[in-house]
Amino acid sequence: MKKILFVEDEPSLQQTLGTILRQEGFEVVVALDGIEGLEKIKKEKPDLVLLDLILPKLDGFEVLKKIKGDPEIAQTPVIVLTNLEGTEDIEKALELGATTYLVKANYEIDEVVDKITQSIPN
Amino acid sequence: MAIDTNKIIKDLNIIRECREELRVGIWQCPQFLFIVMGGITILGSLATYYVGTQYAEPEIVVLITLGVTAVIFSIGHVVVANFSHIAQVNRAKSEFVSVASHQLRTPLSSIKWTLGLLFSGRLGRVDETQLPYFQILRDGTQRMIDLVNDLLDVNRIELRRFTLEPEKISLAGIAKGTMEDLSLFAKANNVDLVFRDTSASSLIMGDPRRTRMIVQNLVDNAIKYTKGKGRVEVTVGNEGTYVKCSVRDEGVGIPEDQQKKVFERFFRADNVLRYQTEGTGLGLYIAKSIVEMSGGKIGFRSKENQGSTFWFILPLVK
Q: Which residues of chain A make contact with B123, given a CB cutoff of 8 A?
């Protein structure tokens, strides 16, 4: 079973997207802040990370930088799932190595699920 | 043409302008302070001349000149200080809009996704009788998201942080795609959407997402402001070294006295407000900004109760 780590501080989003992803047959692990996210990436070795950018304790950009700087986990695809949408934010996240950048409010939940399914390595 | 003296007097009434339009105290109002400065300069010059001819003592003349200069400097200082205060307030306003909009997006995404989950049937089938009510929630949520997106765009335009990512695209292709997306909306409103491409080439350097937004705003307006059955015609053609896209409707039109305000933020025509309240008055302002940033021009002609034609031109790629 493929494992997804969902780093998101908003419980309702975890619940809705989490429910669908579990129904689609993924194992979903959640983290509520940047520090917890980073710890769980190392511990759980997920196949894909869903990462919010505005997070307590350690923001998403820092988390992304640390993931890509650690050879052990650098290969894990990271989908940025956020409500920031400034060009500079998008460029920064993609430069740091994010696979895809999705603005939550502008995607239907099914579209998000499709993107995740496409990005997860076989 | 008769000269409206009352209007001229009203326009010249600076005190009224300061109190009612700018809502600042008289001694903080630049318009008033400039007049005071002018008055002091004139009086100072006259006084200097008088003293100079009467007493002819250079020290006194110099003293008066210095005194007048000092007063003008202090008033100038007040004007500058007030201006920077206004600039700060304006920035605070933009930041407030930005923070509030981003904060709104989180709960809005959460509602949108929850509705998506309910609609998907993954939690069990939604009752047929309940479906239209869920649809109302969904439409309402989408409208709020669109409004928040528009507000963020307007904010970015004002802060000059609005950026385009141009690539080589076909305007005809974009227009056609946008119309396909809007075809259900047109049908629901009993509007025939017609597309004509008479261009030899419609290749431009444009940001695909933003260029789409221009067409979408114009066509969406054309459909929305057609009352009852009607026809909306979108034409893409060449005009010199430009591609022109026009959107013609047979809708309610824009009253002549309001036509110069059409591209202003939050503009809603009176006749439109009478029919319906949907719409934010931001779409055309954003469209104009995108067109101008892409090196083009936007305009329209309109007659109340007969319809409007909105057009924009963008430079062709050689």
A: 19
Interatomic CA distance for residues B33 and A106, integer angstroms: 49
Return d(Cα B278, Cα B147) in angstroms, integer: 11
Are A41 and A5 in contact, with CB atoms under 8 Å apart? yes
Averaged pLDDT in 10-residue chunks for chain B of 318 residues: 64 74 75 85 86 79 86 87 84 85 89 90 86 87 89 87 89 93 87 92 91 93 87 93 94 89 85 70 92 94 91 91
Q: Which residues of B touch A16 (CB under 8 A)?
A: 110, 113-114, 116-117
d(Cα B154, Cα B289) in Å, to the nearest integer?
Answer: 9
Q: What is the ipTM of this complex?
A: 0.85
Q: Which residues of A touch B105 (CB under 8 A)?
A: 83, 104-105
Q: Which of B106, B122, B145 sits opposite A10 (nearest CB)?
A: B106
**B76 CA to centre of own chain:** 32
